[in-house]
Amino acid sequence: MICQRIIPAPDLRQYIKEYLVLHMKFGKDIPTPIKAYPVNPEEGMTFVIRGTKTAETVETGEFKVRPRTCIFGLPATRQNLHLPSEYMMVHVRFHPGAIHKLLRIPMYELLHQYVEAQAILGREIDDVEDQLANATVYDELPRILDRYFTKKVARVKVGFEPIDRIGSVILANPQGFSLSQTANDACLSFRQFEKRFERQVGVTPKYFARICRFYQAYELKDTRQDLDWLSIAVNTGYTDYQHLVKDFKRFAGVTPNMLIKESNLNPERRLKLNAEFVGL
């Protein structure tokens, strides 16, 4: 079993943040594992090698079986991920806006969508799935994806412009981001900038910054569970604790303490696969 974040090949790092290789096995007499999955600033692809994942949208109570290989945009609401007794996948985490750069898809069309990869990429993805399924060691998995995505990136005709990296700038420092200044730097009106950002990332810059700030607070507490929530709020740019609670209820559907409690019961932690693994 494994739960490990892996950095992609150097030529891919402006597109892909990391690969997450995950393989878990639970006894068949143990209840189906559930992973808490709040709203977060993530877009990517998931390649499922063993098992089937079912996503429950908590707000509506709707259950959907995820495709074996899917491309997805930002999640818009809290989900619970229901996993089988054995589950193996490689999760490809892209930088904000990188899927749009690579595939030219308007990301608002992928907001809270998990689309069968073949519908977007065609039959070329079948060979990647076969290689992943036939890999004999975990180390092969990122190398297979490196080869595939290197070919995809080579077909991109236009290089990165400063505006293409705005999502990553907000993700790194959501509380210090100036929307008007960034629009001016890009020589765009506020509305032009907002529309272009929505096309690249899926939501407005202001809303994306709010998601990033929430996730930064969650990840900090997840990493430093000895810190009190007021310190977390101050360190992540909230004006007070109540504003932090409001965002947790909006993006996780529960109080801050409850989300941390749920996260501590996530499947990879119950199996103690990686003591340093935090976040999603």
UniProtKB/TrEMBL annotation:
Chain ranges of the HTH araC/xylS-type domain: 164-262
Pfam family, one: HTH_18
Source organism, top-level taxon: Bacteria
GO molecular-function term, one example from the UniProt record: DNA-binding transcription factor activity
InterPro entries with a match to the protein in the record: AraC_XylS_family_regulators, DUF6597, Homeodomain-like_sf, HTH_AraC
Keywords of this entry: DNA-binding, Transcription, Transcription regulation
Name of this protein: AraC family transcriptional regulator
Classification lineage: Bacteria, Pseudomonadati, Bacteroidota, Cytophagia, Cytophagales
